[in-house]
Amino acid sequence: MTDFEHTAQIVKKNVSLGGKDQSIQALENLHQSNPQNKAHINQLINLYLQQGQIEKACQSMFKLLTLAPEHQTLFQDLLKFSSQQGLFIYAAKAIELVRLQSNDVNPNDYFNYGYYLAKSGANDDAVAAYQQALDRGVDKPEEVYVAIAQLLVNADRHKAITHLQKALSLKPDYIIAMFNLATLYEEMGNRLEAQQLLENILVLEPFHCDALSRLAELVTGKAKQLKVLHAIDQALNITNLNLSDKINLHYARAHLFDKLGQFDNAFQSALQANELNRQVNPQFDLEEYASRVKKLTAYVDGLSSSPPPMPSPVPVFICGMFRSGSTLLEQVLGCHSQITPAGELAFFTKLREFIQRNFSSGTNQVNEQMLSSWRNQYVELLSSYDSGQKLVTDKRPDNIVNIPLIKAMLPDAKFIITQRNPLDIALSVLFLRLGPSQSYATRVQDILDVCSVQQKWLQAFQEKYKDDIIVVKYEDMVTNFTETVTTLLGRLDLNFEPDCFNFHNATNAVQTASVWKVREPLFQTSLDKWKNYRMHLANHS
């Protein structure tokens, strides 16, 4: 009996006895000895699927496809399955193998290749593939220009704008391109250009709910605000309006009433928006939220190694409650000659979710080698923001949960925690549509409870990390700007610079709900705004 036959018998016996792990190991050994055997790969695919090892199944399907690239059913199955599982890179590799090397390759093949590369995060390669589609005369090139712009938006906004303008030169009434361009203009502080594009959209589609919602933030002057409010009320009467649009319009309505000084109407609209939003958000669990830092700490507690040197530029983390002044602070610091603002980086939130999804806490499954690897990935990400400055700000409010993880990876990291009157935070958050991961944002009491939990976390962090935790109060920024910013910069080993006064004229992009607040000078009228709603907040004050 040959080794192959002996292994095959072991596989067959283990499968019949339910020993799938042993079968997989035996088959993997067999495949390594005879990588051209399609039957072995097919068996591996089935066993991987039975064991829930989805990525290994995709890898094996691709190996099988390399042996039989003419097998169209397998090609289509791999495209469909890898897409369903979110493993888009295998769809891209399949197209590269089967379509791009065929004699009848066409522009749409390059478009599809770019699409799957983009979905897998390979943005540069995706842009190159889309450009190939354009060069080869793809149908509807305006759609490809929009797709390229979407990939360029973080790396080079000016190039993204150019591609959107190219799309509109081909199809002037292309609403998707108009809206995306308006969004970019808004984020870069170009109010009039953004407003004009949104108004042009409404000429083409009077009840375009996203355009109406954005205009509610942009328009100034009572007459224009009332006009947009009237259009929103008309849109809300559409019988087949989808729930998400309805939610956004009620939030927009609340903002307009607030601007008009009609505070009772504003609060009622905000309540309506949040009541609808609760239908699509998970129910908030305060106990689960309060346990997040403790749970995350359990993964990394006790891990110690000699602290590596801090990367260059050195990251400074800005976090705290949403609507507590973190975007304002980022703008102010970003005007300093030695600080680059990186915006909201999702790195550590995604890493925390990955760890909690794949490891058990307190079981030493996370080790120093993993932390080192993740640290290197983060340092590589930061390098794209290196333009010679000393510091780079990583501003993401919910990184307050991730502080134990960040400290395990970057022991010398400093954190700026922004704080604000909890009632002002609660009011501001209530008027804002946050995502499902912030499901507390739809009730005043839940928002205040989260403020309280974060305050307890802060006290624990201050006790543990000492001077690496810096607290900045929004009220101090407004009432005593120079001293507050000078003190903060001193903690970062920098001197105050007059350009920090000009934060409202900064040209960097702002992608948060504070986009227009940070384009204005600071006024004391931004303090205690909750008092306009004191009657509605009476039970919480």
TrEMBL record:
SUPFAM superfamilies, A to Z: P-loop containing nucleoside triphosphate hydrolases (SSF52540), TPR-like (SSF48452)
SMART domains assigned to the protein according to its UniProt record, in alphabetical order: TPR
Keywords, alphabetical: TPR repeat, Transferase
Annotated Pfam families: Sulfotransfer_3, TPR_6, TPR_8
Annotated TPR repeat ranges: 175-208
GO MF, any single term: protein-tyrosine sulfotransferase activity
InterPro entries: P-loop_NTPase, TPR-like_helical_dom_sf, TPR_rpt, TPST-like
Keyword hit for Transferase: yes
Superkingdom as given in the UniProt entry: Bacteria
Alphabetized PROSITE patterns for the sequence: TPR (PS50005)
Keyword tRNA processing in annotation: no
Protein name in UniProt: Tetratricopeptide repeat protein
